TrEMBL record:
It holds the Pfam family DNA_binding_1. Its EC number is 2.1.1.63. GO terms for molecular function: methylated-DNA-[protein]-cysteine S-methyltransferase activity. The keyword Nucleotide-binding does not apply. InterPro entries: MethylDNA_cys_MeTrfase_DNA-bd, MethylDNA_cys_MeTrfase_DNAb, MGMT_N_sf, WH-like_DNA-bd_sf. Transmembrane segments: none annotated. Keywords: DNA damage, Methyltransferase, Transferase. It comes from the Bacteria. It comes from Methylacidimicrobium cyclopophantes. The keyword Disulfide bond does not apply. Residues 150-184 are annotated as: Disordered. NCBIfam families: ogt (TIGR00589). This is Methylated-DNA--protein-cysteine methyltransferase, inducible. GO terms for biological process: DNA repair; methylation.
Length: 184
C-alpha cells in the first residue's frame, strides 16, 4: 500500500496498483505544495501498525488521525462512513438518506468512489441494494476479500480496537507538507 501523511494526519492510503493512485497522489501534492520529503512520521508509523493488526484480524477500526482532501460533500460522506459500525455493511441509499439527501444516491456513489483513504474510511462496506458487492476503486475482488476478512474477524471474537475513530473532524482546507510516501 502507499500512504501519504503530514502533521495533520493521513492524507492518502491506496493499494500500490490502484488505478486511482496516481491521480489522487497528484491531487494531494497540488494541495500541499512543496517542500516534499520522504521520511517517516508518527501517522505513517501508526497506520503501518494498525494495518498489520487489521489484516491479522485484530482490529476493525483505525485511530490514526486522518486529513483527506475533498469537497464538503465528499467529506460529509466519508465522515458518515466512519460513524458506521465496523461489523456491518450498508446500502448507498441508506447512506444518502442518513445524510439528509435521499435522492443523492449517485452523488454518494461518486463520493464513495473518490475516497482517498481505502480501508481506514470503510467505503468497501457500502454495497448496492440490488445485490453483489458493487464497484471498488481497487477492484471488486479486493472489496470481496476485505468484507470476508472483516466477517472472519467478527467470527473470531471482538477486534482489538472497537472504539469509534478519534481523528476529529475532516476539513477541506488543510495545508502542510508531505512527510513520507511509503509502501505499507
Amino acid at each position: 500500500m502507499v500512504a501519504l501523511a503530514d502533521s495533520a494526519g493521513l492524507r492518502l492510503l491506496q493499494f500500490a496498483d490502484s488505478p486511482k493512485l496516481r491521480s489522487q497522489k497528484e491531487h494531494c501534492l497540488r494541495r500541499l505544495g512543496p517542500p516534499i520529503a520522504t521520511r517517516s512520521n508518527e501517522h505513517l508509523e501508526k497506520i503501518e501498525r494498525e494495518l498489520a493488526e487489521y489484516f491479522a484480524r485484530e482490529r476493525s477500526r483505525f485511530s490514526v488521525p486522518i486529513a483527506p482532501f475533498g469537497t464538503p460533500w465528499q467529506l460529509a460522506v466519508w465522515s458518515r462512513l466512519l460513524q458506521h459500525r465496523a461489523d456491518s455493511t450498508l446500502f448507498y441509499e441508506e447512506l444518502a438518506r442518513e445524510l439528509g439527501s435521499p435522492k443523492a444516491v449517485r452523488a454518494v456513489g461518486s463520493a464513495v468512489g473518490a475516497n482517498p483513504l481505502l480501508i481506514v474510511c470503510p467505503c468497501h462496506r457500502v454495497i448496492p441494494k440490488k445485490g453483489g458487492v458493487g464497484g471498488y476503486a481497487a477492484a471488486p475482488w479486493r472489496k470481496e476479500r476485505l468484507l470476508s476478512l472483516e466477517a472472519s474477524t467478527r467470527e473470531n471474537g471482538p477486534a482489538a480496537e472497537e472504539r469509534p475513530p478519534t481523528h476529529g473532524t475532516m476539513t477541506s482546507n488543510s495545508a502542510g507538507e508531505i512527510e513520507k510516501e511509503q509502501g505499507v
